[in-house]
Design brief:
Radius of gyration: 18 Å
Helix content: over 70%
Order of helices and strands: HHH
Distance between the termini: 43 Å
Organism: Thalassolituus pacificus
Number of strands: 0
Protein name: CopG family transcriptional regulator
């Protein structure tokens, strides 16, 4: 791949990264035992708790927007 194409790919990645900025936090309270089980399972599955919560939220939004539309 020539330098112009590499720069174009890098530029498109940085624009996308800037467009989807995680700039908010969500604080939740859960049972300590469930939290530990969740974290252990995430580690076992080689993922993070934050990634799985974000995945759940996005899925929940898609599912419920389809019903509303």
């Amino acid at each position: 791949m020539d330098k112009a194409k590499v720069d174009a790919v890098k530029g498109s990645r940085s624009k996308k990264a800037k467009a989807v900025k995680n700039d908010a936090q969500l604080l939740i309270r859960i049972n300590g035992e469930e939290r530990e089980q969740f974290l252990a399972l995430c580690e076992e599955l080689d993922t993070s708790a934050a990634r799985e919560v974000r995945r759940f939220i996005r899925s929940f939004i898609r599912k419920n927007q389809q019903i509303d539309d």
